Amino acid sequence: MTTPSLTGKQLLLATLRHEQTDSVPWVPFAGVHAGKLKGYSATEVLTDGNKLLESLIEVNAQYQPDGQPVLFDLQVEAEILGCKLAWAERTPPSVATHPLAFKAEVPTRLPEKTDGRLPLILDTMHAMKQAVGEKTALYGLICGPFTLASHLRGTEIFMDMYENEEFLDGLLAYTTAVNKRMAEFYIEAGMDVIAIVDPLVSQISPKHFRRLLNEPVRSVFDFIRARGVFSSYFVCGDATKNIEQMCLTGPDSIGIDENIDMVKAKAITDRYNIAIGGNIPLTSTMLLGTQQDNMKFVVDLLATLRATEQGLRNFILAPGCDMPYDIPVENTIGALQAVRDPESIGKALANYTSQGFNIDVPMPDYARLTKPLVEVFTIDSATCAACTYMVGAVAAAKQDLGDKMEYVEYKILEPENIARVMKLGLKNLPAIVINGQLKFSSIIPSKKELIAEIEAAGSGGQQ
Q1: pLDDT at residue number 463
Q2: In the chain, how many domains are there?
Q3: C-alpha count within 13 angstroms, C-beta hemisphere, residue 242
Q4: Is 317 in a helix, a strand, or coil?
Q5: What average pLDDT is seen over the chain?
Q6: How many CA atoms lie within 13 A of 375 on its CB side?
Q7: What crossing angle do the helices spanning 118-132 and 49-63 adopt, rounded to 10°?
Q8: pLDDT above 50 (res 83)
Q9: Which of 94, 197, 214, 337 shows the smallest number of beta carbons within 10 Å?
């Protein structure tokens, strides 16, 4: 049970100071899902300060978080810097245009507090600080430098990594400066933890991370630490190869999703004495599972970590990323109950077995295809930046190849698509499958690479 002498905020901050605690802090990342609790759409909760505040207060009351984000929208900075957004009712907006797609020019203008939705966000941060700031640590989330650069540049950024390095260095220096400006605003608004959320980090190699991001990201965390607040570094997708590189940038904590083995990742973060958070599966467990599934996942994860060398020290329980809008309330409450009292819940579920996703779904007859079929398996291209750009890469190839190929996106928001993933044996998302064969997993190919693979697949299911 939670130590009586500590508030939830104190428990989380003690974990970020790498102290031994009697229980594990809980941080539900309820972004647009917060609106679901009050009957507001994603668009309403991200554009109306009163509705956002009302929804966040409801999250705090129902889910009893030790830490809580004020906003989970990685397009705030992009919108300010000239990207047009496509809005949706149940997801955060997606970036629809890229101002630098056809011109390799480094911007110079930095955000001001009066830009875009910043007045709404900063007002809500101040209001949340006053309402729950004594008991709950508040997170200010910032779009990380590489993902923000990709919002501005589009898929061309993956060619820049090889063919236009000087421009990319300049662009990342600029987005790093944007990160520091946003951090400054959020710290002034009372945020206890500044999280750099950079999902596309999972799509680059450790070599490129070291060359492009090590110094810029480290400078952001140094900037945050110098102002007396804690930091976190979030990544989505299978970023296993980059966990150590992320540690070397010096954050207080790292956040990962279900694509990464928590035990293996924590073994790395423990070597650097960095806290790690995650990684309740967003779709298969939180969205589509039962309350018992969520309880059991949490109990089993805590038991597994407790048995490791460092145990539960430096661990924060959280969903793998931004919670989908339609997650049943009872599922999140189940996770809350399990982290607060894992022993009792574990005994109650000792004989529980999940029903899983054993669904009979039709699969293409890959051997009889008349043209290459590209299947893109995503978490959700409307909400996952890595998924967005992977689908964009396939769409760009389709523009070039036209009727010589077909493609389809399968989002794992549907049980049938989880069954497809299982039948194909896919381990990490997003992924590109061509004629039934996995070609790219958690790595966004250049258009040239992708077209070469599609053409090599030929027709009639040839591999």
Answers
A1: 41
A2: 2
A3: 32
A4: strand
A5: 93
A6: 19
A7: 30
A8: yes
A9: 214
154 plus 236 within the same structural domain: yes
Whether 269 and 246 have beta carbons less than 8 Å apart is answered as no
109, burial (CB in 10 Å: exposed 0-12, middle 13-18, buried 19+): exposed
Instruction: For residues 82-95, give the mean pLDDT.
Output: 95
Q: What is the Cα–Cα distance from 244 to 431, expressed in whole angstroms? A: 23
Same domain, 329 and 432: no
User: Which of 159, 155, 153 lies closest to 172 in space, CA to CA?
Assistant: 153
Note every long-range contact of 265-273, with CB atoms under 8 Å and residues 24 or more positions apart, other chains counting.
265/240, 266/305, 266/308, 266/310, 266/314, 266/315, 267/308, 267/309, 268/243, 268/244, 269/243, 269/314, 270/309, 270/310, 270/314, 271/247, 272/247, 272/248, 273/18, 273/314
Q: Alpha-carbon distance 166 to 211, whole Å?
A: 12
Tokens 């976190």 -> residue: 232
* Beta-carbon-side half-sphere exposure of residue 299 (alpha carbons within 13 Å): 21
Confidence (pTM): 0.86
Residues 205 and 158 in one domain: yes
Question: Looking at the domain assignment, is residue 145 inside a domain?
Answer: yes
Residues 162 and 287 in one domain: yes
d(CA 106, CA 109): 10
Domain shared by 70 and 144, yes or no: yes
Most distant CA atoms of the chain, gap in Å: 67
Q: Which of 133-147, 265-279, 387-401 has the lowest mean pLDDT?
A: 387-401
CATH number of the domain where residue 396 is located: 3.40.30.10
pLDDT in tens, 376-434: 988 777 777 778 888 888 998 999 999 999 999 998 778 888 888 888 888 877 889 99
Burial of 269 (0-12, 13-18, 19+ CB in 10 A): buried
Q: Which of 225, 205, 234, 72 is nearest to 145 (CA)?
A: 234
441 shares a domain with 318: no
Closest CA to 372 of 300, 291, 462, 303: 462
Helix (H) or strand (E) holding 124: helix 118-132
